[in-house]
Amino acid sequence: MSNLHPAVERVTDRIIERSRKGRTAYLALMAEEGERHKDRNTSLPCSNLAHGFAAAEEDKASIATRAGPNIGIISAYNDTISAHQPYGAYPPRLKIYAREAGATAQVAGATPAMCDGVTQGADGMELSLFSRDVIALAAGVGLSHNMYDAVALLGICDKIVPGLLMGSLRFGWLPAMFIPSGPMASGLANKEKQRVRQLYAEGKVGRAELLESESKSYHSPGTCTFYGTANSNQMMMELMGLHMPGAAFVQPGTQLRQELDRAAMHRLSAITCDGNDYRPLSACVDEKAIVNAAVGLLATGGSTNHAIHIPAVARAAGIIIDWSDMAELSHAVPLLARVYPNGSGDVNHFHAAGGIGFVIRELVAAGLAHKDILTVGGYDLGDYAREPWLDNGQLEWRDIDGSGDADMLRPAADPFQADGGMRLVEGNLGRACFKTSAVDKSRWTIEAPCRVFSDQKAVADAFTAGELDRDVVVVMRFQGPRANGMPELHALTPPLGVLQDKGYKVALVTDGRMSGASGKVPAAIHCSPEALADKDGNSGPLSLLQDGDLVRLCATTGTLSTTADLSARTPATAPPAASGTGREIFAMFRVGADEAEKGGSAMLAAAGL
Question: Start and end of every Dihydroxy-acid/6-phosphogluconate dehydratase N-terminal domain (predicted)?
Answer without folding.
Answer: 69-383
